[in-house]
Amino acid sequence: MDAHGAGARSGVETRTDGGVRIVVMTGEFDMDNVAALRTAMDPTAPGITRFVLDVTGVTFVDSTALSIMLQPALDRTVVLAGTVPARLARVLELTGADLAFATAPSVTEGAVMIVPPRRHQL
């Protein structure tokens, strides 16, 4: 797993398993510390067909971070894995972004579950 320090307030770890990019996010993400998240969520990454985001350790996301999380969802599956923290769930609900993500109880399940095609409303 590759660890990228996104700043003292946040962290991003990634690993790739076949066509699945697993991204573990921890801490707070805002416009000042999203470089590692942007790299991990590169929507043009060759061979990546699915992104699985472990967001259980996320305490805050601003609109910049949310935009980065959403960008691959325009043409690839993005799964939020694990329990989505209440603050993040509220932001997703208020913005309607919850409709763009599939959810899974774990990273393992998120990597293999069948996700029906979604009509993007972004």
Overview features:
single chain; 122 residues; alpha/beta; 6-stranded mixed beta sheet; 6 strands; 34% strand
Kindly describe this structure:
25% of the residues lie in helices and 34% in strands. It has 4 helices and 6 strands. The protein has helices at 35-40, 63-70, 86-95, 107-112, and strands at residues 2-5, 10-17, 20-29, 50-61, 77-81, 102-104. A 6-stranded mixed β-sheet has the order 1-2-3-4-5-6. The protein starts with a strand and ends in a 10-residue tail after the last helix. The relative contact order is 0.17.
The percent of residues in helical segments reads: 10-25%
Described by the principal axes of the CA atoms, the overall outline is: globular
Across the major sheet, the strand order is 1-2-3-4-5-6
> Structural class, please?
alpha/beta
